[in-house]
Design brief:
The protein is of the alpha+beta class. It is built from five helices and two strands, in the order ααααββα.
Length: 86
Amino acid sequence: SSIDAYGLAMDFNEVDKLYEREIAPYIDGQLVNETLPEMNTTAENIAIWIWHQFNKHLPENNSLQKLEFFETDTQGVVLTTELMDK
């Protein structure tokens, strides 16, 4: 997000609301094989799905730059704009 005159980008409360409305119902406490679109539900594919949901629902002139998704405490995937634009 662009930095405004107050030195702020997008308010994290807005990010949380977007997550709760558009993403959480499909993954939090769910059997993701039943709630996500048909896919092989690997951490990588779930992270890509989350990435697309955020980018689809972020307000205009905002974009996701980095997403970290952990399958366990020590194993996960990191997506970046550079990787996703390839």
